[in-house]
Amino acid sequence: MSAWLDALPEAAKTYLEGRRLDEVECVISDLPGIARGKAVPASKFAKTDYFHLPDSIFYQTITGDWADAADEDGWIEKDMILRPDMSTATAAPWTGDWTLQVIHDAYDRHEKPIPYSPRNVLKRVVQLYRDKGWKPVVAPEMEFFLVARNIDPAKEIEPMMGRSGRPAAARQAYSMTAVDEFGPVIDDIYDFAEHQGFEIDGITQEGGAGQLEINLRHGDPVKLADEVFYFKRLIREAALRHDCFATFMAKPIEDEPGSAMHIHHSILDIETGHNIFSGPQGGETDAFYNFIAGLQNHLPAGLAVMAPYVNSYRRYVKDHAAPINLEWARDNRTTGIRVPLSGPEARRVENRIAGMDCNPYLGIALSLACGYLGLINEERPRKQFKGDAYEGDGDIPQVMGQALDLFDEAKELHEVLGPDFARVYSVVKRAEYEEFLQVISPWEREHLLMNV
């Protein structure tokens, strides 16, 4: 087993230094982004090259039911082969013993990647860029809420109690005092991240009550999606240590801003290492405009991936720090597509549409896929927007059913993401949506019961 341990990433080696590894959690992301897998003794993991899970984990809805996503062979719950990517081995520092987590990739019996595994979808899109001689670079921003423990679904979600003994306050964006209110939770987030070898670029208070944002340094899309996948679990565990919940719902509290996963993109030429969004003299290139156009033209059809639940669409509300359209502008946070201030080498495009409730692999894959179509089709964007984009009309779907209809029609986008993925994703999401439509809300009972 010592040879295997010698191959671990440095952060994992440091975590285990002088200690005996007890257990390895073998994990893979399902469609919602939940970690599925097995926990095995370290001694067994050292002797095992792979393990099996049924492919039905990708047909499971967020409520635990299964969608009828049968392929041409019928739904027979085929076993997948899950192989570890040892570069992802990292600590699980909240556990009672010495445990590592390792992300696995899914293959079929013929050793072909499972097309609806989210990590494989992102790898597919990244490879399309590489085939063109491009290297995509992304930087995700993660927004989330720390809320009071909530074990009754009928009860409204409330902000957590801060260090001062008062509930977290809203409208305190960038306040250091507000950040200090959550000091113990944030300290654990930093500690866990350090044990796992993750570099946090910064933590800020956002506009919602108990809402925080973590920025990650730019890098490889698959690596960054792995980190967001790990971070969601890390943050939840840190919150539980302090008698509160961390939630990544797009809109957990009414009349408060929602939580986004803003994605910054730049594209490098593999041969030269230069940012293709900037020309030799530092100006904006055709590729820069093509990428923006790809986002404008294809994000409406991909919104069902970036806004995967009925709750997701509650975030797109005018004047609540979320975009309502796909206008683009420089340094304008009211638009759905923003070009941040930067020098030519760091020129990038920010997608502000994705919700924090989306699967990070799929959200990043979808965003890159839209930009890719803009690049290869040499699409041109609308004119740069001037002013407050909230004063304009919305041009993105407002409900899940509408978004799914657009997604099903987007055959060009399916070819980039993978047709098998598109089929399974649509079936699963429609099953969730139809289940939601069977639920009668308190609003309906209050206003319709005796009045209509």
Automatic annotation (TrEMBL):
Stored Gene3D superfamilies: Glutamine synthetase, N-terminal domain, Glutamine synthetase/guanido kinase, catalytic domain
Keyword check for Repressor: no
Keyword entries, A-Z: Ligase, Magnesium
Cofactor requirement: Mg(2+)
Alphabetized PROSITE patterns for the sequence: GLNA_ATP, GS_CATALYTIC
Domain GS catalytic: residue ranges: 118-452
Family statement: Belongs to the glutamine synthetase family.
Protein name, UniProt field: Glutamine synthetase family protein
Lineage: Bacteria, Pseudomonadati, Pseudomonadota, Alphaproteobacteria, Rhodobacterales
